[in-house]
Amino acid sequence: MAGFRITGSGRYLPGRPYTNQDLGRIMDTSDEWVRQRTGIEQRHFCPEGQGASDLALEAAKLALADAGRQPADLDYILFNTMTPDHFFPGSGPLLGAALGCPGVPALDLRMQCAAMLFSLQVADGLFRSGAASTILIIGAEAQAGFMPWTNWAALEPGGPKPSVEEYERATRHRGYAVIFGDGAGALLLERTDEGPGLLSLDLHSDGRYLDQLYIPAGYRKRPYVSGEIVAREEHLPQMLGREVFKHAVTKLPTSVRKACSDAGVTLDQIDWFIAHQANDRINETIRERSGVPAEKVPSNIARYGNTSTATIPILVDEMRRDGRLKAGQLVCVLALGAGLNWGAAVLRI
Ligand code: UT7
Question: Which domain holds residue 176?
Answer without folding.
Answer: 3-192
